[in-house]
């Protein structure tokens, strides 16, 4: 694999992660987490080792208002925690 191939893969996977965060509506919440730099770095590392970028792109192209990330996403559990947190923040105080 050439350096250009590696750079191209890094760019593609980073774009997929951004698109996934936008599609799920978690981008803003994640960028304002207290430890967002470390969280985003770990998430990006998972994306870089994802073996399903084509499935990811297909899913992104075909889902309009998903409730959750696809099961094959290596960041599924992280995104689920963020979505749960966002749900809690919008619940009226008891
Ligand atoms: S499926 Fe998840 S881990 Fe894989 S590239 Fe897409 S956002 Fe990243």
What's the SSE blueprint?
Elements (H helix, E strand, L loop, with lengths): L2 H22 L2 H5 L4 H13 L4 H10 L13 H15 L4
Helix pairs in contact: 1-3, 1-4
Bound molecules: iron/sulfur cluster.
Iron/sulfur cluster binds next to helix 1, helix 3 and helix 4.
Summarize the structure.
The longest helix has 22 residues. The chain contains five helices and no strands. The protein is globular.
What would you note in describing this structure?
This protein is mainly alpha-helical and 94 residues long. The chain has one domain (3-90). It has helices at residues 3-24, 27-31, 36-48, 53-62, 76-90. Helix 1 (3-24) crosses helix 3 (36-48) and helix 1 runs parallel beside helix 4 (53-62). The chain is globular. The N and C termini lie far apart (56 Å). The mean pLDDT is 92. The structure holds iron/sulfur cluster.
Ligand types: iron/sulfur cluster
What series of H and E elements makes up the topology? HHHHH
Please give the count of helices: 5
| SS-based class | mainly alpha
- Biggest beta-sheet profile: none
Please state the CA-atom Rg, rounded to the nearest Å: 14 Å
* Shape estimate: globular
Query: Uncertain runs with pLDDT below 50, 5 residues or more?
Result: none
Number of strands: 0
Defining traits:
mainly alpha; single chain; globular; binds iron/sulfur cluster; 94 residues
């Amino acid at each position: 694999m050439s350096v250009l191939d590696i750079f191209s893969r890094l760019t593609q996977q980073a774009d997929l992660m951004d698109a996934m965060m936008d599609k799920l509506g978690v981008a803003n919440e994640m960028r304002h987490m207290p430890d967002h730099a470390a969280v985003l770095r770990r998430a990006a590392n998972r994306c870089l080792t994802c073996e399903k970028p084509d499935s990811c792109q297909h899913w992104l192209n075909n889902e309009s208002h998903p409730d959750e990330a696809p099961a094959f996403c290596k960041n599924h559990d992280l995104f689920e925690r963020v979505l749960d947190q966002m749900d809690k923040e919008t619940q009226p105080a008891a």
